[in-house]
Design goal:
globular; 20% strand; single chain; alpha+beta; 33% helix; 5 helices
Length: 182
């Protein structure tokens, strides 16, 4: 099925309209305009922001982990990708996934995806003999040390402190219908 030039122009105009609207300051009008396309826009990674250019740079170093609890009390920890623990090929392969599950998933702006994530993990680790009963998504973090005054030596990434602080971002209790079809 070929797309006509008029249809292509309409798609480009719609994309530009929603991108400019997405980048505009938050307001009730902006939210109403974006509501019909928000989930589609986020799912396909079309959302835009100015965070790269903002004066607020991340001041924490963090990673996420899912802990699945099974019927017999056994707990399984599933650590989502951490770039410093992967080789170059694995980093290349997992970057988009890492961007989603580390930079997006644990933050409140993306909480609409939490139940789907929990069901995905429950199905991934489903075992008929020992079914998953709950999942917790945890964010481990530590403040990044400030550079020394006067421009002394900057702390290399490999020497940053381990992530010793933890927040439970999501606790999800599985229902029978969450694991149907397995």
């Amino acid at each position: 099925m070929a797309i006509s030039p008029a249809q292509a122009s309409l798609l480009i105009a719609a994309y530009l309209f929603f991108t400019i609207t997405w980048l505009s300051p938050e307001s009730p009008t902006r939210d109403r305009l974006l509501e019909p396309v928000k989930q589609f826009w986020l799912f396909w990674g079309l959302d835009q922001n100015w965070r790269l250019f903002s004066p607020v740079i991340k001041d924490i170093n963090f990673h996420t982990m899912a802990v699945i609890t099974f019927e017999d009390g056994y707990r399984l920890s599933w650590e989502l990708p951490r770039m410093k623990r992967l080789n170059y090929f694995e980093r290349f392969r997992d970057e988009k996934y890492r961007k989603w599950c580390v930079d997006s998933l644990p933050w409140p702006d993306y909480q609409e995806f939490w139940p789907d994530f929990a069901r995905y993990v429950g199905r991934k680790y489903f075992n008929k003999a020992n079914k998953p009963v709950s999942l917790s998504l945890q964010l481990f973090w530590i403040e990044i040390p400030r550079p020394p005054a006067g421009g002394g030596n900057i702390v290399p990434v490999s020497a940053l402190p381990e992530h010793t602080k933890m927040n439970t971002v999501l606790f999800y209790k599985y229902r029978p219908e969450d694991l149907v079809g397995l």
